[in-house]
Amino acid sequence: MKVEFYKHNLDQQEIESVTSVLQSTFLTTGPQTAKFEESFATYLGTKRCIGVNSWTMGNFITLKALGIGEGDEVITTPMTFIATPNTILQTGAKPVFVDVEAETGNIDCDKIEDAITERTKAILPIHMYGQLCDMKCLNDIAKKHGLLVVEDAAHAVESERDGIKPGQLSDAAVFSFYATKNLTCGEGGAIVTNNEKLAEDLKLYRLHGMSKSAADRYHGTFQHWDMELLGYKCNMNDIQAAMLNSQLTRLDELNKRRNEIAERYEAAFADMPGVDFPKKLGGSHHARHLFTIWVDPTKRDDILVALQQRQIGVAVNFRALHLLKYYREEHGYERGMFPQAERIGDSTITLPLYPKLTEEEIDYVIDCARDVVTSSPQVSLHATG
Ligand SMILES: *Cc1c(COP(=O)(O)O)cnc(C)c1O
User: Pairing state of beta strands 148-152 and 172-176?
Assistant: First the structure.
């Protein structure tokens, strides 16, 4: 048996909605994008949504539009994808890491205040694997110190905690529609916010600061556009938006299936020796983007390879970023600074989790994991950094 790491869930509905865009006049940011922005804002219960071409560019222009740059510090964690701290650096600001909670991998609220300096401008929490951070606590700290909050909601389209969704208790939340995300159009992203001024600025920042988009210019009599500010080029197009619009109607149904699979894994691994996994908290509706297990860090890489040899697609989300060459050499980070992020980064393995997984495939993954973890792995790797 072969179990892919990921299979997308696009079907005939998406093929038809993309086809109808291809048969229309408008390919770039137009009616489909406008429809998606309205539906997605409604889905999340926020005032506005701005479609972009990736999380990375969406987060970058959000930080720029909020005035973050040279000399500023942004607090985040080293347990995330490199896009998170990289976009902070790209604005000229400095990412300041704090450690994560042992049980969830989310930012540890108790550690934030120690990292605040007079240069701190914002907190950038990551909703790990699809479980929301404690947004009430984050919001309280931000209010107390006059800081902005921008959420990395790349894993968190369907997430909710204590009745709060991404974008509701922050300045903005940024989403990814990358190929393996729960909601996908291959490459894409969006920003949601309750701040109307920020939303208008983001529309400028995503398109060179132009006062009128192609869609504005397409309708009515000819109008000149002006350049309001130095923007970038990262608008969502209508082909991407058509794919997203059609999936939005199935999102909750697909999330239900993701949850069933994750609960099968949790039941199987709960009393399996040598295997642990992040905890789902009470009051938390989990987006179930990724299912990860934690194994003995000295055996993790052997176990990864052994699972691959049994034709199971695996990944590592994520190694602690402060230990990557660039962050060690350019920013002086070293091992020992963030023990929980390091423990997770050294022991984690991501297993297949997507609605198309069959019962047989789930059983096979569980059986192989048990086998591989309890028996001594066959292969031996040199220890990696
Ligand atoms: C996927 C991901 C991103 C980057 O998303 P892109 O759309 O590829 O730019 C950022 N943060 C996290 C946590 C992610 O998983």
Answer: parallel
| pLDDT at site 376 | 58
Question: Is residue 299 classed as helix, strand or coil in its secondary structure?
Answer: coil
Segments in the chain below pLDDT 70 = 376-385
Identify whether the C-beta of residue 63 lies closer than 8 Å to the C-beta of residue 105. Answer: no
Strand residues in the chain grouped as ranges (E): 48-52, 73-76, 94-97, 120-123, 148-152, 160-161, 172-176, 189-193, 284-285, 291-294, 348-351
CA nearest neighbour of 138 among 103, 111, 104, 176:
111
By CB atoms closer than 10 A (0-12, 13-18, 19+), residue 223 is: exposed
Classify domain 12-248 at the CATH topology level. Answer: Aspartate Aminotransferase; domain 2 (3.40.640)
Q: Ligand 1: does its nearest atom lie under 6 Å from the Cβ of 245?
A: no
- Fold match between domain 12-248 and domain 252-374: no
Domain 252-374: top CATH class:
alpha beta
**CA distance linking residue 92 with residue 201, whole number of Å:** 19
Cα–ligand 1 centroid distance for 276 (angstroms): 25
Residues marked as catalytic: 181
Closest CA to 65 of 54, 50, 77, 76: 50
Regarding the beta carbon of 154 and ligand 1, being less than 6 Å apart is answered yes
Q: Which atom of ligand 1 lies nearest, measured to the CA of 289?
A: 15
For the chain, the straight-line distance linking the first and the last C-alpha, in angstroms and rounded, comes to 32
pLDDT at residue 219, rounded to an integer = 77
Name the residue with the closest Cα to ligand 1, atom 8.
178
**Residue 384 pLDDT:** 45
Where are the chain's structural domains?
Answer: 12-248, 252-374
